[in-house]
């Protein structure tokens, strides 16, 4: 690969010079930040640096749920996180979803308003009526959303599931085509004159007389304002506030099934959905928290086997299936679920720690980041 100093006059001028804004990371947050900056600054030069030949974190690898919180996950969070922080985070997720829909439309991500179900296994207790009422009341009071969660046990049999005793339906969640969403955002960036340098990894940066000097695997470039949108790969800058969290996913080959929607269980640690005639299932990170605290894209045998067993015994009992593909992606989690949106110094800003709901929250984080300058 050519070093920056070997580039032609034209290449150097076009891509490396006079960048006002440089964004590190071409995931959902990086591209959303670029688009929000473009709305505020129509004429400034904006360049995204991405270490992979594709975005290589979570945004092209996720399950495609437009989720903002299942009842068991929110109730679990309420035991651990201050109530106000939880509702502020939910507000950001709802705001982000709205912005995403306005920005690219339902078609741009193949949005399907199929709803979601939170499934309670036979080993767990159903949600008590008072807790469900509390959640529904808060959603109505804070966001004007009526009856966000309601019990819908008959779906368990209708979809052919086994091993679940209760289901809670949320009509406001849905699914998207993850690949299409990222491609549409990319097209929107290109159409608004946002540049990309793929296969360009940022090693370090430093402030230099009002500019930021950026060191990459190809050489140096500079900009006026730098945005770090590197989520699970940002630990150098936020050591005690975040850690990477790998997540495993598998998808079946086409089969005959009766499942239609998005599903969570065990406080969001498992999730599955239909994608046409296939079923996608992910999660199981809680089976090996230590092993999955990594930025390495590898499979985890223990979790793969647990996911396979879940498919055969609970989700597709009695239905023959084969796995077409399995993969992993890297998320970013912390003790708090609220994202970090912060300036590290006058010219360097960061938006990281999206947790497991970056599809919803990512656009709101990009918008908030763009307002730091
Ligand atoms: C398996 C899985 C399933 C998920 N399911 C859902 C879901 O259904 N719904 C939902 O809302 N969320 C889901 N998530 C979470 C969601 O995908 C993430 O929260 C979201 O994609 C984060 O976006 P991001 O842009 O912050 O990070 P990323 O998509 O990880 O983007 C960060 C980018 O930075 C690049 N980068 C890192 N370091 C450097 C560097 N030094 N130089 C240059 N580039 C760099 C990376 O290559 C990467 O492309 C899931 C995540 C995973 C892994």
Low-pLDDT windows of residues: none
Structural class call reads alpha/beta
Shape: globular
Helix content: 25-40%
Overall CATH architecture of the largest domain: 3-Layer(bba) Sandwich
The CA-CA distance between the termini, in Å, is 34 Å
List of distinct ligands in this structure = flavin-adenine dinucleotide
**CATH class wording of the largest domain:** Alpha Beta
- Got a strand count? 16
Work out the helix count. Answer: 9
- Radius of gyration based on Cα positions: 21 Å
Number of domains: 2
Strand residues, percent? 25-35%
Largest sheet: 8 strands, mixed
Mean pLDDT rating: 97
Q: The CATH topology of the largest domain, please? A: FAD/NAD(P)-binding domain
List keywords for this structure.
373 residues, alpha/beta, FAD/NAD(P)-binding domain, D-Amino Acid Oxidase, Chain A, domain 2, eight-stranded mixed β-sheet, binds flavin-adenine dinucleotide
Describe the structure concisely:
The protein is built from nine helices and 16 strands.
Textual characterization of the structure:
There is one protein chain. With 373 residues, the protein is α/β, with parallel strands linked by helices. It has two domains: 18-108 and 174-242 and 336-373, FAD/NAD(P)-binding domain; 109-173 and 243-333, D-Amino Acid Oxidase, Chain A, domain 2 (2-Layer Sandwich). Helix content is 31%, strand content 27%. It contains nine helices and 16 strands. The protein has helices spanning 9-16, 28-40, 71-80, 83-104, 129-143, 154-158, 178-191, 301-315, 358-370, and strands at residues 19-24, 46-49, 116-121, 150-151, 164-170, 194-197, 202-208, 211-216, 219-228, 243-252, 262-265, 270-275, 278-283, 323-333, 340-345, 348-352. The strands form two sheets. Strands 1, 2, 6, 7, 8, 9, 15 and 16 form an eight-stranded mixed sheet that branches. Helix 2 packs parallel to helix 7, helix 2 runs parallel beside helix 9 and helix 4 (83-104) crosses helix 9. It is globular, with a radius of gyration of 21 Å. It starts with 8 loop residues before the first helix and ends with a helix. The relative contact order is 0.20. The model has no long low-confidence stretch (mean pLDDT 97). Flavin-adenine dinucleotide is lined by residues 24-30, 49-52, 55-59, 61-65, 67, 201-202, 229-233, 247, 249, 282, 329-331, 354, 356-360, 362. Flavin-adenine dinucleotide binds at residues 24-30, 49-52, 55-59, 61-65, 67, 201-202, 229-233, 247, 249, 282, 329-331, 354, 356-360, 362.
